[in-house]
Design a protein that fits this description.
Helix content: 10-25%
Strand content: over 45%
Number of domains: 1
Number of helices: 2
CATH architecture: 2-Layer Sandwich
Shape: elongated
Order of helices and strands: EHEEEEHE
């Protein structure tokens, strides 16, 4: 599992749409599995889940993105997971870090910085 945390500013819906567009442009096998937005108190939350087939890992990986906007600041947590081969091996050939990095690059292009 690979986790990257970033922080930025902007409109949550616009940032989520930018992340969606950027991640999907990463490859033919990449797809959006789920997307939802909620408001809880004064916080707005977006959650996106992507899947992509990685040939080097011979497996589908997931990228989960949690965006929380509160007080004009958006905190983003990106988690790449699922790259291990077989029931016992967790070796993923760097694919989990790579998929999380794709999301991070998109958000950095939208003005976010790693925390």
């Amino acid at each position: 599992m690979a986790t990257i945390v970033l922080r930025g500013r902007g409109d949550l819906s616009r940032i989520a749409d930018g992340l969606l567009e950027g991640v999907l442009a990463n490859g033919m096998s990449c797809e959006l599995v789920e997307q939802t937005e909620r408001t809880v108190g004064d916080a707005r939350i977006a959650f996106l889940v992507f899947e992509k087939f990685y040939y080097r890992a011979s497996n589908r990986l997931s990228l989960s993105a949690l965006l929380i906007e509160q007080g004009g600041v958006i905190d983003a947590t990106l988690v790449g997971a699922g790259g291990g081969q077989g029931p016992l091996l967790r070796f993923d050939w760097g694919s989990e870090e790579n998929f999380a990095g794709v999301g991070a690059e998109v958000l950095e292009g939208l003005g976010f910085t790693r925390v």
